[in-house]
Predict the 3D structure of the following.
Amino acid sequence: MEDVKEDIKHLIRLVKKDMAIKENMAVLGRNPARIEVIDRKLAEMDQQVKEKEQKLEELEKEKRHLKGVIDSELDKIRQKKIEESKIATNTAYRAWEHELAYLQKNLDQHEEKMLFDLEKIDKINEELDKFRNEIEDEKRGLIEKKSELEEEIRQSRERLSIIEDEKLRVLPHISERVRKQYSRVLDAKGDSGVANLKNEICQGCFSKVPPQICHEVKKNDKIIRCENCGRILVYYEAAEDGEE
């Protein structure tokens, strides 16, 4: 009887380790996906900013080109006006007027295009500033959340290393027969070969345990397995969860 009680005492320690391992494995399982979602959101925001910046750069490039064209056309008009004093005939003057009007028309069109581009540049600059301000807090929050998730992963890995080492030190204290039972169920279930009994419910498979069996399990003096999942049933109060 005392040997069984000793086994159960260590099984209780073992199931607590297993549940702690399960919790930390859950963090390692879910946090990378959450981080990936955050990274996608941040990338989408950066892409939106980049697209607006690229559009702005295209317009700035076009503006620089137009300025060069306008300066060139203004120079042509100045040169053309200088020629006025040298015109000798009416035919030549009419030709000169036609050329000057053509140059002026081109200049007007390019200046109109320049004004249109300047308005678009101002609008995109305004939109870009507004968008950056709108996403600033959201990006900061996402980055902070990502850091928290990464820290949880780091801490979980550290805890896992410690808990798994502690578990290895518990196992040799359990009799070989019980240890084999535990290992077989652990291999089958993946989380633990032991389950606590809480409110007449097996915490391994969450099936209801008959009252008489509950009464026997609570004595913690014999190996009793859940009829539904096969885990070894033990009993400890919830307040003991953090205890070794």
Summary: Helices lie at 2-82, 90-170, 176-189, 211-217.
